[in-house]
Specification:
Blueprint (H helix, E strand, L loop, with lengths): L6 H23 L6 H11 L6 H12 L4 H22 L9 E2 L2 E2 L1 H5 L1 H25 L4 H15 L4 H9 L10 H24 L4 H28 L2 H4 L5 H4 L5 H25 L8 H9 L5
Antiparallel strand pairs: 1-2
Helix pairs in contact: 1-3, 1-4, 1-14, 2-6, 3-4, 3-9, 4-6, 4-9, 6-7, 7-9, 8-9, 9-10, 10-13, 13-14
Length: 302
């Protein structure tokens, strides 16, 4: 494939319209049910674009294991609910205290801290309700749906995303070991990206070996994604990133750049991208978009 080929944009092009239509329809269906201001706060962050990487990865994994994207869509939506909720809470003054997200004022700057917290909690709870009921309604066998939702719960809870946010923000929970940044990245970022591809495979009843390979792929993709985020925070601009740059340094946060330097972080991003590609290569000897995506992650610019 040519050097100009962008796997993330291609993946987004395949699934973005379906994902956006589903998310908008879900928000519209709650008019008159959810208090208007709360729904407006939830929708403000949920429908403001973004890469939609996690739901797209879920649909791609599901289709590669024999489940049509339309049937897996409730899980894709749940993943975006959870990712959006994590961003709303991450931007709060008590955490990263950021004023800008995706080029717009953050949720709490528009709706206040109280409503932002409630919007995040609402999206989290709605994610699991929507995933389980929607998947079963779409004909996914209950056992497969239950396994996938259970995996998503673990990825989001204290062993996953919430635990990672704790390690990232709570000084007393941090280790002096510079490799500690890997533990933060595995929980805070990789857990939900890993869940994206693993749940897609689980919905299809994939074998343990296939699930294991998708799990390894998602973990390494997630770590590579976080390393590059750290690099971009140190080198990017607000116009290009859509958020405030150099916040990590200003807050003296533990990052791959602070731990290993810019060149060391770039080398580790390359390594994680290669490991992700290697995990899926036996399943796709002739190559695949997901493998190309992994290979290109270390060089993304936003």
């Amino acid at each position: 494939m040519s050097g100009s080929f962008d796997a993330v944009s291609t993946l987004n092009g395949i699934y973005a319209d379906k994902i956006e239509a589903s998310l908008r329809a879900l928000c519209e269906s709650k008019r008159g049910v959810i208090p208007p201001r709360l729904l407006k706060s939830m929708s403000y962050s949920l429908l403001d674009g973004g890469k939609r990487l996690r739901p797209a990865l879920c649909l791609a994994a599901a289709e590669r294991n024999g489940v049509r994207a339309e049937r897996a869509m409730p899980m894709a939506g749940a993943l975006e609910f959870l990712h959006t909720a994590s961003l709303i809470h991450d931007d709060l003054p008590c955490m990263d205290n950021d004023d800008l997200r995706r080029g717009r004022p953050t949720n709490h700057k528009v709706f206040g801290e109280c409503l932002a917290i409630l919007a995040g909690f609402s999206l989290m709870i709605w994610a699991f309700e929507h995933a389980l009921s929607g998947l079963v309604s779409n004909g996914i066998p209950y056992e497969a749906a239950f396994r996938a939702v259970s995996f998503l719960c673990e990825a989001t809870g204290p062993e996953g995303l919430c635990g990672g946010q704790t390690l990232d923000t709570d000084r007393e929970s941090q280790s002096a070991d510079r490799d500690f940044v890997y533990e933060i990245a595995e929980k805070k970022t990789a857990s939900l990206i890993r869940a994206s591809v693993v749940t897609g495979a689980l919905l299809a009843g994939a074998s343990d070996e296939i699930v294991r390979r998708y799990s390894e792929y998602g973990e390494h993709v997630g770590i590579a994604f976080q390393i590059v985020d750290d690099i971009l925070d140190a080198t990017g601009t607000a116009e290009k990133l859509g958020k405030t740059p150099r916040k990590d340094e200003a807050q003296d946060k533990r990052t791959f750049v602070s731990a290993y330097g810019l060149d060391g972080a770039k080398q580790r991003a390359e390594r994680e991208s290669a490991r992700a590609a290697e995990a899926l290569s036996p399943l796709f000897p002739g190559g695949d978009l997901l493998i190309t995506l992994a290979e290109q992650l270390a060089h993304r610019s936003r």
